[in-house]
## 1
Amino acid sequence: PGLHVLAVALALEVSVGKTNTVMALNNSNVLLPCTFTTCIGFQDLDFTWYFNSTELIYHGKIKSKASEPLLLDRNPRVEFVGSTTGKDNNISILLKNVEFSDAGKYTCNVKNPKEKNLQHNATIFLTVVQKMVETDNTVTLIIVGVVGGLIGLLILFMLVKRVVLFIIKKIQDGKKECLVSSSGNDNTENGLAGSKAEQKAPPKA
């Protein structure tokens, strides 16, 4: 089990960045990002890009960290724009003159002989549009503002309610103390019924 955990920790990882979706204008060029990391290094690493899982659009090999990838096969409209001799092992590609038929799933696949040729991959989805539509966030901002204002008012109301209840409780406690102390004083000092002042000595026989 310990060796298995170590192998998992050293495994090569492939990433297409924070989001796996890309939008591109028809007839434009689009970058399809992909990077990989490994703790054990690599040698004769093989990487491929596939369109919709089956169509190979780029195939390259990297001899070592000190050398740039060697092109083995590619689609004429695909250009390698990454680099593996720098800090990041970047194997990104540029797809030129994007068409609507290019929309779909792109898979970046990496195979490292040092890991017994285990394969790792990451997927990115491309959407092709005629024109970019600017998102109008006015309604969203209004809704967020209204909701935020209501939450603020609710919090203010709850605070005011707690303060008012606290004041009312203090006033009521104060009245109770006054009633207790005044009733005792009045009965004793003014000689009301049941007080010590009215208790007369028993008649002599």
Note: Helices lie at 2-10, 138-189.
## 2
Amino acid sequence: MSCWMPGCPALSMCRGLAALPITCLERAKDLKTRLGILLHKPELGHKTGSSSKLQLGSSRRDSSREVLEWRESFDQLLKSKSGVNAFHTFLKTEFSEENLDFWLACEDFKKTRSKTKLASKANRIFEEFVQSEAPREVNIDHETREITRKNLSGATSACFNEAQAKTRTLMEKDSYPRFLKSASYQDMTKQAAGRGTSKRV
């Protein structure tokens, strides 16, 4: 993770200090997420979710029922391609889309059959998302990071299972409830309900 808050003496030492307590890094990520939310609140004059409206509102293939099903459970959202797209657009406004990208990369990784490709893909995913100070580092604890590192020595389709599960839980408990309350999703549900009413008339 790169240090992004100017003037913070603790964070300015993060780069290159592997011994820095993991709680500092987790706190920094939490602050980054919170700052992203504040920057994108409608009352601060920023319109959020406009791209997701274009992406989903204009797609006739999205059934009204499907959009409404996304609020039933996080699983329902992840099963829907358009739901994943809408959630990804929302996560971008919070600067935390790496969590979903990692989860999707793990899902794709599990489908790999070639042992040679499995090993190279595993290393690529680890370097991009899991290792300390990775370009798109996901917010997992040190123990899970180390377990995943050890799993790479004999890469199997299950080597990211624990890290993927931790990231999924984080999204389900943290980002998903905010997505359901977001203006963009509320607009989608209103449009879906409107389409459902017009069909019945």
Note: The radius of gyration is 19 Å.
## 3
Amino acid sequence: SGIDFEIIIIDDGSPDGTQEIAQQLEKIYGSDKILLRPRPRKLGLGTAYIHGMKHATGNFIVIMDADLSHHPKFIPEFIRKQKEGNFDIVSGTRYKGNGGVYGWDLRRKLISRGANFLTQVLLRPGASDLTGSFRLYRKEVLQKLMEKCVSKGYVFQMEMIVRARQLGYTIGEVPISFVDRVYGESKLGGNEIVSFLKGLLTLFATT
């Protein structure tokens, strides 16, 4: 690719063999390219970002799910978009251009669409996909946002964009295809939906 990169894998004790596969990749590509930084149990998305950031040596950080629902083929497009507009953040969007979602049932699609619609109405964030997590950040911008964000779980992604707008950071978007995971299960349940709604109302009241 001609891009200088490292891959930092944060695994929170998942039972799906992620760590074992990452160890094999480390042997093939070297520990300078594949950095496995596991944690003993699930400690939340926000703390995983902070944990990964501590080990990142580059000026830009791409955050993505490792189950290939976020396809690496979009990363060069993120980099191109960033250079094109000198953006602080480039966010993958499923809801613009030729972006889309594949493999979800109707319930999951309705939840995601509904969450985005509610967020657009209440917060007017100026970005089309608030609940996705496939994004490129300037490292120093990500650090600043992490200091400001207080949410946990799925609200966290939304708060990152809302706070970025508040702080005057620029956001570019790249349409992506999101393909539901082949292995493993989504962690989205009733508790996450309730906490999302609470978080959305908190952001509405405080931003």
Note: Residues 1-58 form one domain.
## 4
Amino acid sequence: LIVAPTFNASLIGMGTVGLPLQPKFGNVDFKAYHIDFRNLAANYAISQALVTDISYAKASFYGCNFASYQDAWYTGRNTSTYVKGGTIYGETNYVFGFGTVCFEQVTFANRGCGGALVAWKGTNKSDRTGTTPITPGNHYDAYISNSQIIRSPDANTTLDLTSKCYLGRPWNDDATTVIIRTYMDDTINATGFIPLSGRPQVILNPTYYAEHGSYGRCPGGNISQHASADHVLDAAR
């Protein structure tokens, strides 16, 4: 049983630009294989309960499991993370961040529903060149491919999660989330993506959400209920 270490930054990036740049320390190119990471304080939902916090570094995980509840996974500013295999357990916005992350062949286990699975923040105005829009040059993205999103086997049996969970919502208007060839069980609401509460209840440009080859959530591949901002991609793009 391992308590997840922190690499290069120990705080969550907040505000419009994330944390200010900090002096480099720790491991800037970390790899882990077949380790269970758990937030030991979070044996139930207790607001934010990170199991990873990685900023200003590269990190990759192979066959590892991550268990918490709200805000479990954080990929911070100027960070690239890659995850292959394993399971991430959480409930509210449990994949969030302000960097670039790619999940491949990962199981996302919904212990509950609140907010969405992915809450991402893209590049903001201070990172642009002049007034040039960042889209499609936004490099702070979240990608999920060849994975599955399911009700967690350890979810409270009294919880009705049917159609209660969403795929993503934007932490700022420049958010990008792409989901490819991923199975989704009936915990996922057919609209897929939602606005961030407290903001205008529309998903604005240049927010970019996209799916390709998703299955299981909408019987017969029916995409009629998807959010209007959800780009359904074909094999060529």
Note: The chain has one domain: 29-232.
